[in-house]
Amino acid sequence: IAGITQAPTSQILAAGRRMTLRCTQDMRHNAMYWYRQDLGLGLRLIHYSNTAGTTGKGEVPDGYSVSRANTDDFPLTLASAVPSQTSVYFCASSAGTAHTDTQYFGPGTRLTVL
Amino acid sequence: GQNIDQPTEMTATEGAIVQINCTYQTSGFNGLFWYQQHAGEAPTFLSYNVLDGLEEKGRFSSFLSRSKGYSYLLLKELQMKDSASYLCAITNNDYKLSFGAGTTVTVRA
Q1: What's the pLDDT score for residue B23?
Q2: Cis omega (within 30 of 0) on the bond before A61?
Q3: What is the pLDDT of residues A90-108, one digit of tens each?
Q4: What is the pLDDT of residues A72-94, one digit of tens each?
Q5: How close, in Å, is residue B53 to chain A by CA atoms?
Q6: Nearest CA of chain A to the CA of B25: how many Å?
Q7: pLDDT band of B93, cuts 50, 70, 90
Q8: Could you give the CA distance from residue B22 to residue A83 in angstroms, rounded to a whole number?
Q9: Distance of CA A69 to CAs A24, A73, B47, Å?
């Protein structure tokens, strides 16, 4: 594989259920990010990690948690899903956190919470 | 925080030129990115500007004026495959990307 992979591709989930979205990159990038994309709102940052072992909150972190146990993986967990979390979720990575570092995006996970 | 504005939709004819404007307001500025996103796919990097002026890459060019908080993406010799959303994003002092809502460009034959 090359780049970023996400799983699952899509998921329908009952409200109140726990769900983990997986993200793996093989580019040895230090920084990783989770965004949600909603119609008319653009991409919004949920959580980020500047390097393995560290995480930070983005613009819309409530209801989500992340971990960064190693360089390659950055899972996003919804502890108790709610319908407002219906969205397309994109994972991204960048070599570093300099303002010139381009972010590369995974293919996305389409999540529907009923 | 930051405000990023770009038009919602634009339509143009194959072979024509389209200019997508992006205006922004931010407390700190460290660069502006343009991404392309085809329907149902991931955003892909197009360009990065941090200094005033025009950056040209083949059929695509991007312009930045820091004093005016303004950028545009110019698409020349439009092709059907250019039908996509174009996302303007800025980095500020915390080096995080903030995205505009995107401009959907439809290219017609």
Answers
A1: 97
A2: no
A3: 999 999 887 788 999 999 9
A4: 999 999 999 999 999 999 999 99
A5: 17
A6: 16
A7: confident
A8: 32
A9: 12, 7, 32
Instruction: Report chain B residues whose CB lies below 8 A from the CB of A33.
Output: 97
Residues 6+ apart with CB under 8 A from A23: A4, A5, A6, A32, A34, A73, A74, A75, A76, A91, A106
Please list, in sequence order, all residues whose beta carbon lies within 8 angstroms of the beta carbon of residue B59, skipping any fewer than 6 positions away: B75, B76, B77
Residues B24-41: what's their mean pLDDT?
93
- The single-letter code of the amino acid at A36 is R
Q: What's the whole-number average pLDDT of chain B?
A: 94
- For residue A105, the chain B residues in CB contact (below 8 A) are 42-44
CA dihedral B72, B77, B78, B80 (to 10 degrees): -150
B44-49 vs B32-37, strand pairing mode:
antiparallel
| Rg of the Cα atoms in chain A | 13
- Distance, in Å, from the CA atom of B2 to the CA atom of B57, rounded to the nearest integer, reads 28
CA distance A27 to A4: 8
Report the percent of chain B where pLDDT is more than 90: 86
